[in-house]
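Researcher: Re-running this chain for the archive, since the previous output was lost when a drive failed. Same request as before.
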Amino acid sequence: MESLLTAQQQRLLDTLLDNLDGMIYRCLYDSNWTMIYVSKGCVTLTGYLAHDLLLNKEVSYENITHPDDRQRARDTIAAAIDKGERFELEYRIVRADGEEVWVAERGSAVLDPSGQPVALEGIIQDISSRKRIEHELFSTEQKYRSMFENSTLGMFQTTESGTYLNANPALAKLYGYASPTALISDLNNISTQLYVAEGRRGEFTEAIRANGRVQNFESEVYRLNGESIWISENAHAVYDAQGNIVYYEGTVEDITDRKNYELQIRQLAVTDNLTGLLNRHAFSGKLASLIAEADKMQRKIAIAFIDLDHFKLINDTLGHRAGDKLLENVAQRLIQSTRPTDAIVRFGGDEFVMLYPGLTIFGRCRALCWPV
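Model: Regenerated structure tokens:
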């Protein structure tokens, strides 16, 4: 009965060992790693039958270990044994069909009565799939890092609370810093240190929370030297497995030139080219805003129309250049004769309109017009 039970236990043990993923082994602690036991997993792992590996009948395990990894593997195992520890290592083997395979080996030494290692016992498993994934991840990381470091666009990662985790050289240069390290160290509160408009960072984070990302988010920001520039941000949130925001990442583009050009276009649309005063197209809008302000403040607004006498005669006799010079001089006289709150409009060729807001009585208008 005891013999039958022992046989059943052995079959169970063999079954368990043979079904483990990888090769269970016992080898001598010698120059060839001479195998004295291998499980059936050796075929899948190495391409060799157990008979080929046992006692080095066809090939030794030392020989199927990749030549470039042999010494490192032996040194790693020896170091662990010297410390009385289990060993764990990764290296390559060459299968029977010539394919290189990455394996992970874990095990421990068998010591003789004097404490010297005489054998090793452990398991060796194929980790090629994991190594391929690691290589792909590494390649992806390298490509991203290269793009991050060499991009002409500013790139960043920030915490939700408003500190920089990462910044590339282009962003540091854009904001006036010598290096990303200097930027990250100095800009520790994006909300108060970077954006010109109070609350702009809050609008940025709210937009991402609502939509997962922001596109063409335009803001005026400060550079290190205190000057302001305009930027456009494209960014999104990165989440953890529970759906919590881990950080924001995105790009920054300097759009100051575009903003200045747009401002010039807007100014040209409402400004007289010759005198620099408001033009006829701006009159109705300016008047409406001043009337609205007067209603709100319970004040009055006065309008004065000015027409230059004999201007046509000057143009006809002295030429348009002289006429233009006269208009420029008149505009300067009008500017010098008015308050900062007043508005001056060149309404036509020789016609001007003065807008006097903030009056409590219309009698005040005569006094304001008198210097003109």
